[in-house]
Design goal:
Strand order of the largest sheet: 5-2-6-7-8
Number of strands: 9
Structural class: alpha+beta
Low-confidence stretches: none
Largest sheet: 5 strands, mixed
Order of helices and strands: HEHEHHHEEEEEEHHHHHHHEHHHHHHHH
Helix content: 40-55%
Distance between the termini: 46 Å
Mean pLDDT: 94
Radius of gyration: 22 Å
Oligomer: single chain
Shape: globular
Length: 474
């Protein structure tokens, strides 16, 4: 059994992909740390990187090579200024000298020292190996796997031991949705209260609030930036940003100067049903347009699905409850994180393992459950909403055109957000005791579907839309 914190499921990073960009970035940093622990770092004179499976097949479109280089440079994906990424890469390409961990210069050609292999490693479709040649010609090699949501492991899962120990420290260890519901019933607590008590066992309340506020700030800023940035997304598909145009049509005349005032300006506009749909879609599109352009977003639970949760939370704040505040944001994120962890423990959140049902499907379930609690739903209705949302994403494939997180990925965030809101409403009007399919069953079904799904529909760009449409057609 593994403990998964809300802050494992919702983490700040850089787009366009949590598994193909953020994960490799973190893997490179982890490898450097391991070299330092082994006292081998100062002896490194050459580095080579090998990408396997899905990391190779869609690596160029996901900027995996750029992410690896940034990790080797020792930069932090959470805090490094995203506007400086291209500058660092241009300098590396021009000089072919890499400042390993920003302190040790070694020769490195990003085009030839990062190799893309079509073969898949047996442990996971997203494999990455780092090779170091030392001064004495000895070679060291370590292999990592990016398993979705920015999580990086080695096959022996050393991290799992620590996570298991932490699991037993939780006052309410949760492996299944039924266990979560039992805790809520026996303790007479909401889901967010149960999750919060678990978080309190590993960090103090001030730290929890600070981290949740930071997550919401990035979510809000990514929506704001996306709604106020026009142009063409990078990558060669010539996809026009749509959030800017949509926002221009929806926004009223109330002036604002920042994202906080922007929320109040939206609240002051007259909103009808069609406008609600358009606003929610606009919020979701905006986040994933930022994500697609190497922007800073929150994995929720992945980068490819980063727009669903902020769009649904924004819907609550600007449509359903104009007096909503940080306490509402806190509850929403706590519930969303816990629902996401159920999918990660019992299925997958990696599109390379399970297709897009593992990303958009999971994010929609997370958002549906979280919204249901804020709307006054019972814990049973929260889990019912999550089940409904996932049920209608089962079998969703991952077939990005040109390996870019753009088509159909960006639009799917808007669809996932709308489905989450619909699932919430159905759960609020429903009787959980009459539900035919519990959440645990739909999670198990999702995992079985993932295992049955052919690999060409699992983030390889070898099937579906990816082979039906050429870049020239776009």
């Amino acid at each position: 059994m593994e403990s998964i914190s809300v802050f494992d499921m919702l983490s700040i990073g850089v787009g366009p992909s949590s598994s193909h960009t953020l994960g490799p970035w973190r893997a490179a940093k982890n490898w450097i740390s391991k070299l330092q622990q082994q006292e081998q770092f100062t002896s490194v004179c050459q580095v080579q990187v090998h990408l396997y499976g899905s990391l190779s097949l869609t690596g160029k479109g996901h900027a995996t090579d750029i992410a690896v280089a940034m990790g080797l440079l020792g930069t932090d994906p959470v805090s490094f200024p995203i506007e400086n990424i291209q500058k660092e890469i241009d300098q590396l390409k021009a000089s072919s000298i890499l400042m390993l961990n920003s302190e040790k210069p070694i020769p490195f050609n990003i085009s030839t020292d990062i190799t893309f292999h079509r073969e898949f490693l047996p442990f996971h479709p997203n494999g990455i190996s780092f090779e170091a040649t030392l001064r004495n010609n000895k070679q060291l090699k370590e292999t990592y796997y990016s398993i979705g949501g920015g999580f990086v492991v080695q096959e022996e899962r050393k991290r799992a031991k620590r996570q298991t120990e932490r699991f037993h420290r939780f006052p309410y260890p949760i492996e299944k949705a039924t266990e979560l519901l039992d805790y809520c019933t026996t303790q007479q607590l909401s889901i967010s209260q149960i999750v919060y008590k678990n978080e309190l066992s590993i960090r103090d309340p001030e730290r929890i609030d600070a981290k949740l506020k930071a997550i919401w700030e990035v979510m809000l800023e990514s929506m704001f930036v996306g709604c106020h940035t026009e142009g063409i997304l990078p990558g060669g598909l010539n996809v026009r940003r749509r959030a800017f145009d949509n926002h221009q049509k929806l926004q009223g005349t109330t002036p604002y100067n920042n994202s906080k005032e922007w929320i109040e300006a939206i609240r002051s506009t007259e909103v009808k049903f069609r406008q609600i749909l358009k606003w929610v879609s606009c919020f979701a599109l905006s986040v994933n347009e930022v994500n697609a352009s190497l922007g800073r977003v929150v994995t929720a639970p992945t980068n490819g699905s980063a727009g669903v949760i902020p769009a649904v939370l924004m819907y609550y704040l600007v449509i359903e409850n104009h007096r909503g505040d940080f306490e509402d944001v806190k509850k929403f994120l706590l519930v969303a994180g816990e629902i996401g962890s159920l999918f990660k423990k019992n299925a997958t959140i990696s599109a390379a393992m399970g297709g897009c049902q593992a990303e958009i499907g999971v994010s929609s379930a997370m958002a549906a459950g979280a919204l249901t609690e804020l709307m006054g739903g019972t814990p049973a209705q929260v889990l019912m909403a999550a089940e409904i949302a996932m049920e209608h994403h089962l079998g969703l494939t991952c077939d990005p055109i040109a390996g870019l997180v753009q088509i159909p990925c960006i639009e799917r965030n808007a669809m996932g957000a709308i489905k989450a809101i619909s699932a919430c409403e159905m759960a609020l009007d429903g009787d959980p005791s009459q539900a035919k399919i519990p959440l645990d069953k739909v999670i198990a079904t999702m995992w079985e579907t993932a295992k049955d799904m052919t690999s060409k529909y699992k983030e390889t760009s070898e099937g579906g839309l990816a082979v039906q449409v050429n870049i020239s057609d776009c």
